[in-house]
Amino acid sequence: MRYGRGGGLDAAERARREEVRFQAAEYIEAGLSDADIAKQLQVTDRSVARWRAAFTGGGCDALLSKGAAGRPLLLTAEQQRELAAALKLGPAEHGWSDDQRWTLVRIRDLIWKLFGVRYKSLSTVWELMKRIRFSWQVPTRRAAERNEELILTWREEQWLDIKALYRANISEYAP
Length: 175
Prior knowledge:
mainly alpha; 8 helices; elongated; disordered N terminus
């Protein structure tokens, strides 16, 4: 896949393209012209010319894939899965009980707390959220029908009862 959520080419696609370059090397050794190789492999003449120059200068090693482009990720795939699981638990589980919203700042702080990895830019945290298929969403304005007094009453009475019931049920099933 080219330029999916992770960006760049995945390992399978890099290996496939590497095989095309190795096939081109065989054709080069057989004496075929760039145009013939390009037609045979369904690539551009320019690509074949680059491969020929690399192959002539460094052999098959020069045609090897150089790996994924760009900076290496700060979190491993396993750490990204752990982060996703931690986010699903909600902010209250990680000490933010004042409201139940994940913000990029909170997510950045959670990453630091869990993995000791510091993201300096919130846009990089946002890119990480897209990579693990999470999105943060905050309404742009409040509903006109919103009743602040009713919400406060619900939060102080019913929400506390719900949390207590939830904790009681969790401890009931805990080993």
